[in-house]
Amino acid sequence: MTVDDLDAKALAGRLATAATAATAAPEATGEPAPDGRTWARGDYSVIARLLVGLGGDLVRAAGVTPVHRVLDVAAGSGNAAIAAAELDADVTASDLTPKLIERGRREAAARGVSMEWLQADAELLPFPDDDFDVVLSCIGAMFAPDQAAVARELLRVCRPGGTVALANWTAGGAMGRLFALLERYAPTRPEGALAPTDWGDPDHVRALFGDRVARLETHRRTARLDFTGSPAEWCALYRACFAPVVETYERLGTDPKLLAALDDDLLRFAAGEYLGPLGGPGRYEFEYLLVLAEPAA
Q1: pLDDT, tens digit, for every residue of 185-203?
Q2: How is domain 3-295 classified at the architecture level of CATH?
Q3: In CA terms, which of 47, 159, 212, 246 is 20 to 30 Å from 132?
Q4: In what order do the strands lie in the sheet with 282-295?
Q5: What is the pTM of this model?
């Protein structure tokens, strides 16, 4: 999907709304926001629509069929969940952020699929043991702070012999480099704490799941975002819509030197990652780790 595939007026309106919401957010405190509040910033559903193919890829890798009961954890606006529902699976999408759940409900309705939406924390899922055949998380559960708790919950709610399928950004890919850039300006975790992109390390995932899995596969894949705008327009999009970028600018307050430096670094990043002739059409490529795990009996 490209930016041209989106309704131009609708996208412009969302950018304006998101930018207004970002500037109207609570006054910066210099402290990272709780996870749910972070992802309420901007409008991540705009970014998700540009990466909509990633959700479908994850669903196909998980082997979802109409007979499956499926849970999408940290579903955001539902890229993976909606793709699973379009296969007539019995789907529940959970997320910590009400704003994203509402966006997902609208998108599901627009695409004519029926599914359940529920606010839930990936670290403490409100479901019985062995409740689902397939548990998905597409660039979602990786952002929860307690990684051990998330790993435990993903496996707990999936039946033995089922499939836990994850797509996680890697530290060495473009999104990992973006997160490292933002972390230099406004650190969000204590020194030595685990990074979300640790979920993109196969050895780390194996350690998290341990002997609770009967089978574990990891594959490095690339998500492609076709983009016909300039790197500067990419920066404007992410500054308005992508919660980690929105929060970083917010936490810098009104310091003109820091804001200008971040502007420059973000543009340099966008130009460096842009593949294709300036002026388009071009693309961005983001490496992720596909994880397929089978819970042990």
Answers
A1: 999 877 778 999 999 999 9
A2: 3-Layer(aba) Sandwich (3.40)
A3: 47
A4: 116-119, 90-95, 69-72, 132-138, 158-169, 282-295, 213-227
A5: 0.87
